[in-house]
Amino acid sequence: MYTVVKRLHFCYGHRLLDYDGKCAHPHGHNASVEVVLSRDTLDGCGMVIDFGDIDRALEEFIDVELDHRMLLRHDDPLVEALRGVGEEPYLMDSNPTAENIAELLFQQAKKKGLPVVAVRLWETEQAYAEYRE
């Protein structure tokens, strides 16, 4: 089994509803995402996948949908307040936790046909959440 890991970066804001702690308040993170991809065999060039292909598959989604945006649960009262000042948040069905953002990026990679096996979202330098099927 061959494995490669590509790291991407983006900034986002969020808050958690129904949560009793600091993360209930709007705040931001400088996130690092590690996308883990794997295959049993290498392609004709000797690669699992070209790192540029990973960039092209995921960077557009990250840049357009997540980077420098507020990620909010769809029923968060902040949604309308932000829209009222011309900001469009990225809406999620569940709380925008590191775990749920990792799953979102995993599903996006899978949808783009990448041989993804795991996505790690580093919310801080000391803590990450991982999603794998």
Structure notes:
By secondary structure, the protein is of the alpha/beta class. It has one domain (about 1-130): Tetrahydropterin Synthase, Chain A (2-Layer Sandwich). Helix content is about 30%, strand content about 35%. It is built from three helices and six strands. The protein has helices spanning about 50-65, 80-85, 100-110, and strands at about 1-15, 25-40, 70-75, 90, 115-120, 130. It has a six-stranded mixed sheet. Strand 5 and strand 6 form a beta hairpin. The longest helix has 16 residues, at about 50-65. It is elongated. The two termini are about 15 Å apart.
Total strand count, please? 6
CATH architecture: 2-Layer Sandwich
How many angstroms does the end-to-end distance come to? Answer: 17 Å
Structural class: alpha/beta
Shape: elongated
Following the backbone from N to C, one meets helices and strands in this order, namely: EEHEHEHEE
What gyration radius follows from the Cα positions, in whole Å? 16 Å
Strand content: 25-35%
Biggest sheet character: 6 strands, mixed
Give the low-confidence spans.
none
Q: Provide a count of the helices.
A: 3
The CATH C-level name is Alpha Beta
| CATH topology call | Tetrahydropterin Synthase, Chain A
pLDDT averaged residue by residue? 96
Assembly annotation = single chain
CATH superfamily: 6-pyruvoyl tetrahydropterin synthase/QueD
